[in-house]
Description:
Elements: H1 2-33, E1 41-51, E2 56-66, E3 75-85, E4 90-101, E5 114-129, E6 132-145, E7 148-162, E8 173-184, E9 192-202, E10 207-220, E11 223-237, H2 239-245
Parallel strand pairs: 1-11
Antiparallel strand pairs: 1-2, 2-3, 3-4, 4-5, 5-6, 6-7, 7-8, 8-9, 9-10, 10-11
Amino acid sequence: MFATYLNDMNFTKGIFSAILITTILIIAYTTCQAQDNQSLGNWNSVILKGKFSPKWSLLGEGHIRSSNYDFKYDYFEIKMGIGYAISKNLTGLFGTGFFNTDEPGGFFQTPALQKELRTWFELNLKQTFKRFYFEHRVRLEQRFIGDNYKNRLKYRLGLLIPINKPEMVHGSIYLALSDELFMPQYGQVVEKNRFYFGAGYKMNKNATLQIGCINDNDYKPNIHTAKNHLQIMLIYDFTNLVKKRT
């Protein structure tokens, strides 16, 4: 009888979690669609990360996006980095990446509007308060755009909140929020603000699927533009695979 009660509880929790994650995704989608006079963009991402020793880690990212939700992609970026655990919650990382921007809807058939090589140094600080997982990321970028060189500082505050479990483990459904400020060396203090709202599901120890809305606000001299993208992101952590081989 007690086992039946527990099964009923687990079933109820599963139904509640499914309803909650569906509601969150609907909110994210409608939020993305709510931008006046702007079509919804598409943003797809794959992130590979993991430790290959107690102190050292690797990061690889691939992103591709379109200005409209028509899969006529006009932008991609490829990034990689190596990190070092300074302490349990603080990590330093050096990264580099290539960024390519084409005409909207060009699907890489037209000459690129901009090609950029970028390097950066960053610090990641993680803090956990009960079921609230905070991350502070400070990144100093060196941007090589054609013959131009620019420096830029970024700060991102991220928050993960597991919904159906008390912590981030296999089977966790979670809420994801973040806000990032882009601060150039010269000109206005903030040139871009990127807000993210979404939800994710930790499928197993290695793989996580996350879906959400990215809201970009660009602040150029006398011009303010905004754009929303619906993002689908797959995150794969290979740390457990490395541990099994060692």
